[in-house]
């Protein structure tokens, strides 16, 4: 035999009752005997309390509320019961409703609503629902009858939450079930005292009824039918990837329910748990789903964490002071006073220094708690031995729960590391000695992000999700998007990494979606419905979205986003960017960004700042980290200039070559940044800073190679016109060098004295820079370890594909850092 319990939503309407009946009829057809415990139709218990309160306060509107209750049940009957049987059912229900009306009239006249009257009032909910369900079952051929639990469940006469007399109850239940074969549709929640007065079983009363009947009848399983697919790993409204658990232990279920997962309320299931009766949580609206089994063992031994639960709103209260140290009885005074004041504590922590005791309460209890403590420790506070009570609001608790965490190292480390990497700081920590639960108190605004990040770490280790915000979808950003699109399938299937583009913008439009855009679309289609773009607003929105595992990708050329890097990093969002400005403007800002990344433990990556996709900055950082000392750096650092001077030959027009370089994606959006030496100056400055030299932009000397008129041209088009006028000048320099058997190169140098220069040099055929081709960059590091033979890095140093690929690689690096 089994006991099945259906909650208020399951029996909340005619349609739902039909669904319940079809489940029950299947049981009958399979020859499986069941006892069915039902709740009142959803919302009815609250209405019964309210109608009583209105009547007691002399408010005549109780009558309309009563009508409302009546019509809910009559409508349900009319929808369920066929016409020829309706009159009998309606007659019974009317009788009950008349009783209810009489009782309410009495309450109205007396203006008094005792706990005893409240119990009677509330009992009508279950008495009505169980009768209607039994009638409907009979109609569809299931042999069923209502069992008013007041006949068998005996309690003391403490109203509003009576104590069950198990000896009498158990024998009455077994006797009753021994005398009938009909399916019993039992009123949950209600009972009666020895003298026959109606009592109720308190919070979670129908679950309690199910446990009482299950234990008395020694059933093999109790099924709790609700409206969700069993117990889920976490709240699916917050974490869309939450899924149903196959099995958990009674203790785990207890912990989950303590911290918010309201599917079952295990304390009420104690009678069944004591007898080791398995519970199964099932979904009335998805009956083929097997549900979650709750037994004495946790199951799924390889899962250290079974669930993540949370309480969204709590306040943290701290009592501190030197007067607490080594003084016995402080906690007993504190907790005793709070208990007397009716305050229930959700979590308590005390460091071994004994200097502070911190505990969490519901925000509605925080003012009361403060007052109680101030009264209890009045003298100590007056003498300064105890500090004023601290109350912190806008906090949440989240807890990871699992029996298998016991003695398994690394679980808490994972919890803290995931929170840390997502910029969530922890206000308090508690772990019970049972090691079943590690609870942390965090800022409420971070709860959503934290639950998602932790769920990913603990439950989706075979699938990680990175939330990417892309500012700038021009040459580099657009190419990057194409590369991400082409590689998405591979990353998902081979690397278990999903790249979610959740924000995107160019200079005109910006769009956001916390679920991520379909990146199989072209960038214009993604941006199509965007709002007006603004870098500051983009960043603001990104910070406000507060998504876990976020990365900001800046593929714009200007300063508008750069100014916000420090703020972004301080908001615990990692950055990758090909934009060189942050690292090559003031030293102060460069250091601030580095410090912000370090402080928040996030990544700030910019390998493509020098040599595009070539590994230059990474190796340089590795040399320094491993204790090497950079002595000198020399380099061809501009892909554009390299291409120009590698290709420039007799009979060619220099201005035409510049146009080609632009078309090939080598130049900056304004090619004068390349030709004027600004871009190279930025790069040598960045290398110098990475090598440990604290240089300002003004410390880099640049030999001008462009005539002033080119630099002064108001637009890029005007510049090209002016450049044509300078063709002769460039041809002259080229021819002179050729005569000497040399080639022209723009060489950037950081010398032994830490002086940075950019100069046009004519190099001979023996020089390593002589033989470069295409957009080749070459960087030569002379260091203490690479002294006689310097470390040389060479390869294409500009272009959309190689640059975007460098940024892409960094996105994945950030993903691996955040998620592992
Ligand atoms: N080309 C190369 O080989 C390399 C380039 N880089 C760097 O890559 C970066 C991008 O260069 P590139 O792609 O060529 O430049 P583009 O001009 O082609 O693209 C820039 C993108 O940024 C957008 N944009 C500009 N300002 C804003 C703003 N304020 N808010 C939002 N979006 C904005 C533009 O919008 P819209 O489309 O509306 O104009 C465009 O989508 C530069 O910093 C460059 O130095 C680094 C290494 C190598
Ligand atoms: N415009 C730059 C691109 C890379 O930083 C160059 O030409 O090197
Ligand atoms: Na690079």
Automatic annotation (TrEMBL):
Q: Which reaction does it catalyse?
A: L-homoserine + NAD(+) = L-aspartate 4-semialdehyde + NADH + H(+); L-homoserine + NADP(+) = L-aspartate 4-semialdehyde + NADPH + H(+); L-aspartate + ATP = 4-phospho-L-aspartate + ADP
This protein's record includes keyword Metal-binding: yes
The keyword Ligase is assigned to this record: no
Question: Which Pfam families has this protein been placed in?
Answer: AA_kinase (PF00696), ACT_9 (PF22468), Homoserine_dh (PF00742), NAD_binding_3 (PF03447)
GO molecular function ontology, one term from the record? homoserine dehydrogenase activity
Give the SUPFAM superfamilies listed for this entry. Answer: ACT-like, Carbamate kinase-like, Glyceraldehyde-3-phosphate dehydrogenase-like, C-terminal domain, NAD(P)-binding Rossmann-fold domains
InterPro entries documented for this protein: AceGlu_kinase-like_sf, ACT-like_dom_sf, ACT_Aspartokinase, ACT_dom, AK-HD, Asp/Glu/Uridylate_kinase, Asp/hSer_DH_NAD-bd, Asp_kinase
Tell me where in this chain the ACT domain is found: 400-478
* Metabolic or biological pathway, per its Swiss-Prot or TrEMBL entry: Amino-acid biosynthesis; L-threonine biosynthesis; L-threonine from L-aspartate: step 3/5; Amino-acid biosynthesis; L-methionine biosynthesis via de novo pathway; L-homoserine from L-aspartate: step 1/3; Amino-acid biosynthesis; L-methionine biosynthesis via de novo pathway; L-homoserine from L-aspartate: step 3/3; Amino-acid biosynthesis; L-lysine biosynthesis via DAP pathway; (S)-tetrahydrodipicolinate from L-aspartate: step 1/4
Domain of life, per UniProt, equals Bacteria
Instruction: Give the quaternary structure.
Output: Homotetramer.
Biological role: Bifunctional aspartate kinase and homoserine dehydrogenase that catalyzes the first and the third steps toward the synthesis of lysine, methionine and threonine from aspartate.
Q: What is this protein called?
A: Bifunctional aspartate kinase/homoserine dehydrogenase I
Q: Could you tell me which species this protein originates from? A: Flammeovirga pacifica
